[in-house]
Amino acid sequence: MITSDDLAFFSVLTESKSLAESARKLNVTPPAVTQRLRALEEKVGVRLIDRSGRRLLLTEEGSLVASQSVIVSEAIDSLVEALADRRGVVRGHLRVAAPHGFGRVHVAPVVEAFAREHDGATATLQLSDHPAALLLESYDVVVHIGEPGHLDQVVTTLAANRRILCATPQYLDSALPILSPADLAKHRCLAIRENEEDVTLWRFTGPAQESVTVRVGPVMSSNDGAVIREWALAHQGIMIRSEWNVADDLVAGRLRQLLPEWRLPSADVVAMLGSRHGRSARTTAFLSMLRQSLKPLPWQIIASGQLDQ
Predict the structure, then answer these.
(1) Do domains 92-152+272-293 and 163-267 have the same CATH topology?
(2) How many Å separate Cα 285 from the centre of its chain?
(3) Could you say which architecture CATH assigns to the domain 92-152+272-293?
(4) Residue ranges per domain, the chain?
(5) Which of 31, 55, 56, 285 shows its CA 20 to 30 Å from the CA of 247?
(6) Class of domain 4-86
(7) pTM over 0.85
(8) What is the pLDDT of residues 1-42, one digit of tens each?
């Protein structure tokens, strides 16, 4: 009978160009690989690999074993992870997706800490311009900023995050005054194109809860928030950015908030989970570490009133 060890061994062979490469991966000698392959072929009664050429070529029966070994290995991994979850043991491969900027600054250090703390787990961090558009079932956690996607997703809020209208003092000192959202139509505006939103419509809620929508004509736009921030810091116009991204600039005086009495739609930091991943011990452990890293909020303005100046 073929064992799981046999399938694991054969998987290494199918991913190698030669028996010598397989031997290096398995940390054994090439004759040992040849002997074990011969024993496996005797066990199943058919030839699995054609070794007549310079490269390893699977026979038709070898291709069948290779395809089925993937299914069996995944089933065994799922069973082992399920049993580990029952015991609260963190193991398996953690897959996380996050936006580029926020992911580099706030998620990557947590992924590193997670892998360091849990010896039985490995981790992958995928940074994307549109993490919410990725297939959720391919990831344990998808970190997203803004409105979550489909209603069938499990969503948990990680941190509050405002959107802030801002520009440099140098730009504002040389431009027309901005007393209401309608004045923005007369200014140079910088827009980020993300999540398939209409970037030319800027929506505000006023002090009396009135709603105002302004159609702006962006002089420049980009799908990269870091680029928009650099343009704004170069005195090129007015932008809307997440508080996490501009808090330091506001406190240092490099940027100034506009119309603080008018609120923009919030952009909370959320985690989207697949229904299966939401119950895993590794997901629970990672989310706990990520939440802890965001308390208190790294971008929280300590001096109250700084943004209102």
Answers:
(1) yes
(2) 17
(3) 3-Layer(aba) Sandwich (3.40)
(4) 4-86, 92-152+272-293, 163-267
(5) 285
(6) mainly alpha
(7) no
(8) 788 888 888 888 888 888 888 899 888 999 999 999 999 999
